[in-house]
Write a structure and sequence with these properties.
- The chain is α/β, with parallel strands linked by helices.
- The chain contains 14 helices and 13 strands.
- The radius of gyration is 21 Å and the shape is globular.
- The termini are close together.
């Protein structure tokens, strides 16, 4: 079987797919992965043929654009259309040569879905966030202003849709592109238990569990309680990190902070606090007792997989949906503000009330019970 796979230039959307890709290539299938040079090595290590999408005036390669996509639907739509058209000639030529049996694309790499529509090839959505339909979408808090902006922008959006139709993409409207329905074959990298409103999704949705890489390094536990703090690569709120240091530096807990490439260097750190640009997150989580997180789907899933309750500090609507679900399942508490008092109160609550640990264990058990990459492979074999 030949599979064409499309993804956006983001680690959080690429990394979860690689274990599925390796499962497919190990089984003798050929995977052609359309991505970007920064991911070439990992994709080729998974056994796929790498096809570069760099250098096609592809605006989502700009990190600021990629971040803005999660917050601005109108901008996302314009970017989707310009990206699809920028890649059109190359994808048409490559798909013509490869003649794939199935196309898999990230749920946000809409150009993959459009290529499948244009060439009449069976399509599978790869969803590294929650699956969203009209029920679960309520977890993404939209203000009346967000809805008004979308309505005001419809003439602009319809103009963009016409550009696609003019290039041979059989698209009726925006919803057809951005929304999967119960007829869409979909792989979701979480469990049915963690997925909001999972009972509203059809059997075409396969919840295979998160993609958790094995622990490779070892991190020494130096105190009775270990607190891990990571806000992903985007958040560089110095006041937040400073308040974490001031609040938690007064305790006898081991505190490990992963601060990203713009890490601020403190001259006089308390002895119990370590600051790193990056860490082996799996290794740290394997010894952690609480995790202060921005609620990116991968980070939250990794924490819960290791049965670590979460202090929730979401930065985008998508992360807000993850935070809401974690709260509902009793596996974490929302951080009310970045004040020293609120940080300390949230961490103490997590550590002192065993119900949060129990909630995290329940989610972890649901992840471990999923079918994983093997289930995804069988599913794709049935379609292709």
């Amino acid at each position: 079987m030949k599979i064409a796979w499309f993804c956006i230039p983001a680690y959080g959307h690429t990394n979860p797919t690689l274990r599925v890709v390796k499962e497919l290539t190990d089984a003798g299938h050929r995977v052609y992965y359309f991505s970007f040079e920064m991911f070439r090595e990992q994709i080729e290590q998974a056994g796929a043929d790498f096809i570069p999408c760099d250098g096609y005036d592809f605006e989502m390669e700009d990190k600021e654009n990629a971040d803005r996509v999660g917050k601005d639907k109108v901008f996302a739509t314009e970017l989707l259309v310009s990206s699809t058209l920028a890649l059109d000639e190359m994808t048409t030529e490559k798909i013509g040569k490869i003649k794939p049996d199935v196309i898999v694309s990230d749920s946000v790499a809409f150009w993959g879905k459009l290529v499948a529509m244009k060439h009449g090839i069976p399509y599978v959505s790869s969803t590294t966030t929650f699956a969203f339909n009209r029920y679960s979408a309520k977890y993404m808090k939209e203000t009346p202003w967000d809805i008004a902006k979308m309505l005001l922008a419809m003439p602009r959006i319809n103009k963009q849709i016409k550009r696609l139709r003019d290039k041979g993409y059989p698209v009726k409207g925006l919803l057809e592109i951005v929304q999967n329905d119960n007829e869409t074959n979909t792989i979701v990298y979480t469990s049915k238990y963690f997925q909001p409103c999972s009972e509203t999704f059809s059997e075409r949705y396969h919840f295979i569990g998160p993609s958790i890489r094995p622990v490779t390094d070892s991190v020494q536990k130096t105190a009775e309680k270990t607190i891990y703090i990571s806000m992903g690569t985007v958040n560089q709120d110095k006041e937040f990190y400073r308040n974490c240091v001031l609040a938690l530096g007064k305790t006898d807990w081991q505190v490990i902070i992963s601060m990203g490439t713009n890490s601020e260097h403190y001259d006089h750190l308390p002895d119990n606090i370590q600051i790193h640009e990056s860490v082996d997150q799996m290794a740290v989580l394997s010894i952690a007792d609480a995790f202060i997180t921005h609620c990116g789907m991968n980070s939250a899933s990794e924490g819960l997989y290791f049965q670590v309750p979460l202090v929730l500090f979401p930065q985008t609507p998508e992360q807000g949906a993850v935070a809401k679900r974690v709260e509902e399942l009793g596996a974490g508490v929302l951080l009310n503000s970045i004040s020293e008092e609120d940080i300390m109160q949230a961490v103490r609550k997590i550590l002192l009330d065993p119900a949060y640990k129990a909630g995290a264990i329940k989610v972890s058990e649901s992840f471990r019970a999923c079918g994983g990459p093997g289930e995804a492979r069988v599913f794709l074999e049935e379609i292709g």
